[in-house]
């Protein structure tokens, strides 16, 4: 569980020392969905951040953002989404629930329109971080980082480790990848190598299948990368990084909101370590833990935004 505790400690540090929106375990591929999961993602706020924060604390459904539903005359979801009618209606309902769409009923039909324009400039860049506390057990680290560098879905890619970093380690990594040495106990970060900005506005190359002597790749257009980048940013905004603490009599949370076990005196991985498989597990209510307050106090994220309602002056006459 060392890597898990390392990851949470790094998230806490980033939240404390930057103005990023920090999240964990998000998809980092395009042509092969699920083929790459990035340990930590940092969303750097852009000029339109406050306008995005005012809409909702949740993730805005990506299909709603990508639909043809506008801020003018309301439309039937079935005609404005590039998907099945059932999916269109479900996504439209979800967008209404989070305050991105407004709904109207006319002639027995449910119509929707955007409550506001979506601020595409709400984030300025994305930082992808791969955690590998022990470089002596690198696993697929090299291939993962080469994929990140060639696809260029993130503006910057960083390797975070607890190990001493040698010249040999650096030579095995793509030169564009930055390297941080992070001490999870002290919360200190030493920059070993700065990351190089990646060409997110150009076509990326994503490995999709590897066999001996052959690697199949997909060319990913810049427009498709932009769409996935927005999805990653939205998912990060709604998700955050803090897990729920386990429902155990020994469970509590640290001052920064990490799940902690008083019996073993350390941060724990609730999904993997707690429950019937733990000899000290004693079922109880989860510790009182207001995740939203933690995020609201420590980041630009807004737990309870006012919401946005656009006045459609005179437009109803033409619907």
Description:
With 319 residues, the chain is of the alpha+beta class. The chain has three domains: 2-49 and 120-239, Trna Endonuclease, Chain: A, domain 1, CATH 3.40.1350; 68-113, no CATH class; 251-288, no CATH class. The protein contains ten helices and 13 strands. The chain has helices at 2-17, 49-53, 62-66, 77-80, 85-97, 141-151, 167-172, 222-239, 270-273, 291-298; strands at 21-27, 37-45, 101-106, 109-114, 123-131, 156-161, 178-183, 188-193, 204-211, 214-220, 251-253, 259-261, 266-267. Strands 1-2-5-6-7-8 form a six-stranded mixed beta sheet, sandwiched between helices. It has a three-stranded antiparallel beta sheet with strand order 11-12-13, with no helix packed on it. A hairpin with a 2-residue loop joins strand 9 and strand 10 (214-220). The longest helix is centred in the C-terminal third of the chain and has 18 residues, at 222-239. It is globular. The model is unreliable at 311-319 (pLDDT under 50).
Quick overview of this protein structure:
By secondary structure, this protein is an alpha+beta fold.
List the main descriptive attributes of the protein structure presented here.
single chain, 319 residues, alpha+beta, Trna Endonuclease, Chain: A, domain 1, 3 domains, 6-stranded mixed beta sheet, 3-stranded antiparallel beta sheet, 10 helices, 28% helix, 24% strand, disordered C terminus
